[in-house]
Specification:
Length: about 70
């Protein structure tokens, strides 16, 4: 017997996950922010430390702009 509110074709796991532009932009932005913070806190390379602010800023700007994309 089928449930009243669910269509016949709905079954767990049958629906594919679609990648939206917003999801891709937010995922990439989050990765950039995390990479920038890790670059900021590492004690080994002055070059990584030098570019850490730019990477974190790029991730933040991408997140702000990417959150405006359609879902």
């Amino acid at each position: 017997m089928s449930r009243l509110n669910e269509p016949e074709s709905a079954s767990p796991g049958s629906e594919r996950r679609r990648l939206s532009p917003r999801g891709l932009a937010e995922g990439l932005a989050t990765a950039l922010i995390v990479a920038g913070v890790i670059m900021l806190m590492q004690p080994f390379s002055l070059t990584l430390y030098t570019y850490s602010f730019a990477v974190t800023l790029a991730g933040t700007v991408l997140f702000v702009v990417g959150s405006k994309f359609p879902a």
